Amino acid sequence: xxxxxxxxxxxxxxxxxxxxxxxxxxxxxxxxxxxxxxxxxxxxxxxxxxxxxxxxxxxxxxxxxxxxxxxxxxxxxxxxxxxxxxxxxxxxxxxxxxxxxxxxxxxxxxxxxxxxxxxxxxxxxxxxxxxxxxxxxxxxxxxxxxxxxxxxxxxxxxxxxxxxxxxxxxxxxxxxxxxxxxxxxxxxxxxxxxxxxxxxxxxxxxxxxxxxxxxxxxxxxxxxxxxxxxxxxxxxxxxxxxxxxxxxxxxxxxxxxxxxxxxxxx
Amino acid sequence: xxxxxxxxxxxxxxxxxxxxxxxxxxxxxxxxxxxxxxxxxxxxxxxxxxxxxxxxxxxxxxxxxxxxxxxxxxxxxxxxxxxxxxxxxxxxxxxxxxxxxxxxxxxxxxxxxxxxxxxxxxxxxxxxxxxxxxxxxxxxxxxxxxxxxxxxxxxxxxxxxxxxxxxxxxxxxxxxxxxxxxxxxxxxxxxxxxxxxxxxxxxxxxxxxxxxxxxxxxxxxxxxxxxxxxxxxxxxxxxxxxxxxxxxxxxxxxxxxxxxxxxxxxxxx
Lengths: 266, 269
Hints:
The structure holds two protein chains of two kinds. Helices cover 77% and strands 0% of the residues of chain A. Chain A has helices at 2-18, 22-42, 51-84, 88-93, 98-127, 138-166, 170-183, 195-202, 207-218, 226-258. Chain A is globular, with a radius of gyration of 19 Å. The mean pLDDT of chain A is 82. Chain B has 13 helices and no strands. Chain B has helices spanning 3-20, 22-46, 49-56, 60-91, 94-98, 104-116, 118-135, 137-156, 158-171, 175-190, 201-207, 211-223, 229-264. The mean pLDDT of chain B is 88. At the A-B interface, α2, α3 and α7 of A face α2, α3 and α10 of B.
């Protein structure tokens, strides 16, 4: 099983990093897109806020945004691509689990996030100010990252399952990649949200990791006490993961019975 | 075959594709708002709406809805042209296209018009309500002016896009990879989200050779209520002058790339 996951990892590594200078081109591309979307944040900065703090908030917003994009476009979308290329059935009859595919994909996605954050940090340091990441609470940060990873896997499994069942998903992934981080406090501390939006955000498992990461890295104020964020966030994300796995199993059973939808559509 | 026939053929192809993918229409309508919300929420974390309004004397909602609309409209004009060679290559139609006698300027204008046209409607749907809310009846007139300036800006990008496409596909068979790097760079140089007067000097000078960036500045001056007749005349004049200078260069770049293909052959995918 581990060998199969490593084979998948190798294949994706070669395809997305090594082939035709893909890594160099993608990093350049990412740096420019990030510069385009981060620069307007500077226009909002208050003269009383140190530049490093402004840059740090922007940096964490990018971290959350890139994470959702990776879970949607890299992990979940891979199922859609397999379906469009007509190889999903071959994968299924090989008897391997979709989790294995995800296990092979995840390191590549995480590597991209790491590279992306490095690029964003460099751009900010060069053009504005280095993000003042103070490591205020390393324990909260570690737990926040754990919850974030759990939530991302669960999110991509749910999204992947919906693609397996419906056969489409591009616009859904596109919209979710934008709306989720905005609506669940991924980009801004929840204390700055109106009460109703804060309540909605906290009712989803997505808000807890973002709050913990911001607090861990910057000491940013949180909508709930940190221990409560951990006490709710950890079991909530675990439950979400369990539920998403059940959804995936049900979806796979459904397409085993009824066949793959949207075959060959790109 | 004249320009009218080519334009009609391109229009029908685009229209049928649009009707097939209705989600595209929905995306077109909501994207300016989505991008605005994204920037506002991100901005909340670092200072807030009042800091922006105090610095630029315009509501960030008006600014970002307008700039997002501008960006999307210009981007669709540029993308349609820069991605056409790749899609012709993948569809297998490139060998027939490069032997056709049609003037390349006609072709690329005909290619760009149909996707830009629906953005007039998008402007009415996206900008009019916002401007009417903020500025009343006067806002409707301002919005119509901005829509006209935006559509002009997206047409002015055509020769730049032709140059980018010609150079990229000449340099590499997988020219679309280079195009993907140039896309965000072009948007930075247009100064849509980060006004060009705030850019470093080298970048500011580079913006001068992109006709659409002058129109972007014109719209930004309208937004902050600082547009004088002299400034408007200068920006429009400069845009048109650069556009006219770039037209033959764009055409030359495309024909140069096609000439190379005639000698070397078209790669099949």
